[in-house]
Known about the structure:
Blueprint: H1 5-19, E1 29-33, H2 35-44, H3 47-52, E2 55-60, E3 68-77, H4 81-90, E4 99-106, H5 112-120, H6 123-126, E5 127-132, E6 138-141, E7 144-146, H7 152-157, H8 162-182, E8 188-191, H9 196-215, E9 229-234, H10 249-256, E10 263-269, E11 274-280, H11 286-291, H12 296-313, H13 324-333, H14 338-374, H15 386-395, H16 401-415, H17 420-429, H18 434-442, H19 481-490, E12 501-503, H20 509-512, H21 517-520, E13 536-542, E14 545-546, H22 547-559, E15 564-569, E16 572-573, H23 575-582
Parallel strand pairs: 1-2, 1-3, 3-4, 4-5, 7-15, 8-9, 9-13, 13-15, 14-16
Antiparallel strand pairs: 6-7, 8-12, 10-11
Helix pairs in contact: 1-2, 8-9, 10-14, 12-14, 13-14, 14-15, 14-16, 15-16, 16-18, 18-23, 19-22
Amino acid sequence: MAPLGLKAIVGEKIMNDVIKKAREKGKWKVLVVDKLSMRMISSCCKMTDIMSEGITIVEDITKRREPLPSMEAIYLITPTDESVEGLIDDFRDPRTPRYRAAHVFFTDTIPDSLFGLLTKSRASKAMKALTEIHVAFLPYESQVFSLDRMDAFQDFYSPFKADVKNNMLESCAEQIATLCATLKEYPGVRYRGEYKDCAVLAQMLQEKLDGYKADDPTMGEGPDKSRTQLLILDRGFDPVSPLLHELTLQAMAYDLLGVENDVYRFETSGMGETRMKEVLLDEDDDLWLSLRHKHIAEVSTAVTRSLKEFSASKKMNTGEKTTMKELSQMLKKMPQYQKELSKYSTHLHLAEDCMNRYQGTVDKLCRVEQDLAMATDAEGEKIKDPMRLIVPILLDTNVSVSDKIRIILLYIFLKNGVTEENLCKLLQHANIPPEDSDIISNMAHMGVPIVSEGTAKKAKKPDRKERISEQTYQLSRWTPLVKDFIEDAIEDKLDPKQYPYISQRQVSAKASAPSSARYGNWHKNRGPTEMKTGPRIIVFIIGGMTYSEMRCVYEVTQTNGKWEAIIGSTHILTPPKYLKELQHPDFLDPNSPPEGTEEPPTE
Length: 603
């Protein structure tokens, strides 16, 4: 399948502006990358395409490399100390340079200090080109991007990291600006007013965007483009979504099956022996595309249905319910369809794996989590005594500590904070070890009420949209807050007092006139890389986004024909990762006595 959306745009940009640009007929070259650019390339370019443009080998700039003094190298690197140092090092000794010459492409603007180092170095003599391509983000899916900053959460929320926070925000602003420039958008920038640092990032981003706009006045021009908005939030805006057990396939698999780097590992029993199989879950797989946002209850039937359609088209017959066994039988009979059939078996396996984890433990948790998150039960009645819901789970020895913590946090959010004494009781009942209780207290750094002294004024929770008409499963009633925001922003209902603009673009009367069907449908037969012409809503979350939030942008885009929603963040969170970040050593006071010397807990 051809890559879609962001991946297609970035892939094309790397191929055209870097690889093909430096290509010389009949000459092979080396491609040298660093961590971010490697992830960018592997996410949106095919190795075969790169090879066919005259690249023989791709090397990591931070590792030791074989010198190839007869070949020229293309460097696609981020303008960081480490990568520039690596480049300078390759040409340090004029007698034995590592490559014959260098074509250097930086993902982003190079700081003056590094530029100075580079021009003074020997490498400057070997450089045939130096360009900044301004793509410094990772296109994770067709409508999702990440800045690939794993430590952003601690850097942003830990009171002990205040010194690095500004630099972190500054480089995030740089990266987001390259996203806007790549999409040719000049959005109205808005931010969550409640958390002061959202405004800081918004201000920095506006300055960077104005710089890009000055270089390229056509950026953000076009019908309806003036309505494009970019909304900056921080993880504290919705602390609930990353805690829930989601039951849609993608979110569930990443939470329960520990899928790392999008690789799903499982055991297959083929001809008698079992072996580990690794499968990449990505958008090249159209079956995964159609399944990833489906509720787990529908996945197995959907896989079997599409398998039936496939076998019917290939004149094979499959039974009502296809089992793994039958699939491997079919594989033996039809080796030529190995690729397609193994795809079906992977997804059946994935769904089965999720269901096995779900039955017995997660289903109990989901019921309680949904009631706590919604503050109403499945019948819509208000929850009067949430304590009664959670005690059986906290006392249950089969429930893991992290699942108990997820429940305790949801209870605290429902109550808008609890007293110190009640929190101690909860932790005692649930047998939460002291080192894990930090997760709960660190939540307070996100501006979320955790410990409240009975009399304090309770913060008002945002009113949620009524979604009665939407068909939901009892155990999936919660909708991530971000969906409300995106829909409100599209309908112009997002409160400008709470989500102020840094600068609002003037919407011309002409642009907001209803588009006629004739004008609106001309792009139906466009090629995959032609740009959407409608407005976009881009959401950026500092401190991590969840898979359920990613699902929302696709849902909104589907229902609002003209708008495209895109979501991005510093990195991607699953519930286990979220809890781990809240427990990060960066949240410990570097000057306090080491753990274990505190006063004993009160009985």
